[in-house]
C-alpha cells in the first residue's frame, strides 16, 4: 500500500491541524480531497468536493464529531473499497463500530492525535484491525510526520490514552491559565502573569523534552534544599494533591469516552 490519495470527511479543527502538519512534512496537497456538502476553504492544491465521490480512495479520514458518524457513513459506500484504509480520529468510537459501518474496508485504524499535529509535535496513539504489514508501515509514517506513532496492542486503553494525549492539551492550557490566575490573585498584573506563565511552560517543556534528566530529576534540580521551589512542591505533593486531581481529571474524560463508545454501537 502506498498513500497517494486521501478523502477527508469532516475538515475541522483536528483534521485541519493534521493536514497542516502533513503539508509541512512535504506531502503534496494533491493528496487531499475534502468533502463538505456546502464547501469550505481548503489549502492550495487540495481538492474540495460537495458530492460524495464515486471511486475508492487509498485512505478515508473521518474527522466529523463522533455523533455524526451515521450522517456520513452511507455516503462513503463508493469511496471505501476493498483496498481502502479507514482512519478515524473520532473520540470514543470503537473499531467494531467503525467496521460495522465500513464492512468493505481493507482495514480500520483508530488514530488519536492532538492539535500539535500542526507543528509535527503530536503523540499519536494508534490501534488497527485488518492492517497489513505494509499498511502499518504507511500509517506509521503518516503518524510520524505529525509527531510520533504510539501503537497500542489492543483497544482497551484507547480512551485513557485519548484522555492523556488527545485531551491533554486542553488540560495543559487550563494549567497555564491557572498559574497565571494564581499569580494575578496574589497581586501580579494579569497580562504580565499570562505572558510569564505561557513562556515558562514553553521553556520548561522544551527543556524536559530534550534533557537527559527525567521531569522528576529536573524538578529536583530547580528546587534548592530549603528554598522557595521546595515549599511550592510540598503543596502539590502533599496528600498527592496534584496526582489526585489529575487522576480524577483523566478518569472523568476516559469515562466519557466509554459513554460515547456505547452511543456509537449499533443495536442488534
Ligand atoms: N479538537 C481536538 O483537539 C481533537 C478532536 N478529535 C476528534 O476530531 C473530531 C472532530 O473534532 P474537531 O475537529 O474538534 O471538530 P470541528 O467541529 O472543528 O470539525 C468537524 C468538522 O466536520 C464538518 N462537518 C459537519 N458535518 C459534515 C458533513 N455532513 N460532511 C462533512 N463534514 C462535515 C464541520 O464543518 C467541521 O469542520 C471529533 O470526532 C473529535 O473527537 C480527536 C482528537 C483531538
Ligand atoms: O474532547 C473530545 O472529545 C476530543 C477527544 C480528544 C480531544 N478532543
TrEMBL record:
Top-level division of the source organism's lineage: Bacteria
MF (Gene Ontology): pyrroline-5-carboxylate reductase activity
Catalytic activity, reaction form: L-proline + NADP(+) = (S)-1-pyrroline-5-carboxylate + NADPH + 2 H(+); L-proline + NAD(+) = (S)-1-pyrroline-5-carboxylate + NADH + 2 H(+)
Pyrroline-5-carboxylate reductase catalytic N-terminal domain residues: 8-92
GO biological process: L-proline biosynthetic process
Catalytic activity, EC: 1.5.1.2
Pathway note: Amino-acid biosynthesis; L-proline biosynthesis; L-proline from L-glutamate 5-semialdehyde: step 1/1
InterPro entries documented for this protein: 6-PGluconate_DH-like_C_sf, NAD(P)-bd_dom_sf, P5C_Rdtase_cat_N, P5CR-like_CS, P5CR_dimer, Pyrroline-COOH_reductase
GO CC annotation, single: cytoplasm
Residues of the Pyrroline-5-carboxylate reductase dimerisation domain: 155-260
Keyword Amino-acid biosynthesis on entry: yes
Places the protein is found: Cytoplasm
Alphabetical UniProt keywords: Amino-acid biosynthesis, Cytoplasm, NADP, Oxidoreductase, Proline biosynthesis
Pfam name, any one: P5CR_dimer
Keyword Amino-acid biosynthesis listed: yes
PROSITE patterns referenced in this protein's UniProt entry, alphabetically: P5CR (PS00521)
Principal subcellular localisation of the protein: cytoplasm
Membership in a protein family: Belongs to the pyrroline-5-carboxylate reductase family.
Its job: Catalyzes the reduction of 1-pyrroline-5-carboxylate (PCA) to L-proline.
Protein name, entry field: Pyrroline-5-carboxylate reductase
Amino acid at each position: 500500500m502506498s498513500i497517494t490519495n486521501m478523502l477527508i470527511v469532516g475538515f475541522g479543527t483536528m483534521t485541519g491541524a493534521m493536514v497542516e502538519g502533513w503539508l509541512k512534512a512535504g506531502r503534496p496537497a494533491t493528496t487531499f480531497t475534502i468533502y463538505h456538502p456546502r464547501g469550505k476553504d481548503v489549502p492550495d492544491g487540495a481538492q474540495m468536493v460537495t458530492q460524495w465521490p464515486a471511486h475508492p480512495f487509498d485512505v478515508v479520514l473521518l474527522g466529523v464529531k463522533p455523533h455524526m458518524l451515521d450522517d456520513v457513513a452511507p455516503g462513503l459506500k463508493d469511496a471505501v473499497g476493498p483496498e481502502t484504509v479507514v482512519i478515524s480520529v473520532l473520540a470514543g468510537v470503537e473499531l467494531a463500530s467503525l467496521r460495522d459501518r465500513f464492512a468493505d474496508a481493507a482495514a480500520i485504524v483508530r488514530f488519536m492525535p492532538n492539535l500539535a499535529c500542526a507543528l509535527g509535535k503530536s503523540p499519536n496513539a494508534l490501534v488497527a484491525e485488518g492492517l497489513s504489514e505494509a499498511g502499518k508501515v504507511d500509517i506509521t509514517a503518516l503518524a510520524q510526520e505529525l509527531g510520533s506513532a504510539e501503537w497500542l496492542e489492543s483497544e482497551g486503553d484507547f480512551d485513557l490514552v485519548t484522555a492523556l494525549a488527545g485531551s491533554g492539551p486542553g488540560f495543559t492550557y487550563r494549567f497555564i491559565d491557572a498559574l497565571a490566575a494564581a499569580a494575578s490573585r496574589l497581586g501580579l498584573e494579569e497580562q504580565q502573569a499570562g505572558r510569564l506563565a505561557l513562556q515558562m511552560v514553553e521553556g520548561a517543556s522544551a527543556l524536559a523534552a530534550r534533557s537527559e534528566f527525567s521531569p522528576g530529576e529536573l524538578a529536583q534540580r530547580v528546587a534548592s534544599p530549603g528554598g522557595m521551589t521546595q515549599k511550592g512542591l510540598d503543596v502539590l505533593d502533599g496528600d498527592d494533591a496534584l496526582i489526585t486531581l489529575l487522576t480524577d481529571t483523566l478518569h472523568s474524560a476516559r469515562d466519557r469516552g466509554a459513554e460515547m463508545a456505547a452511543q456509537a454501537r449499533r443495536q442488534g
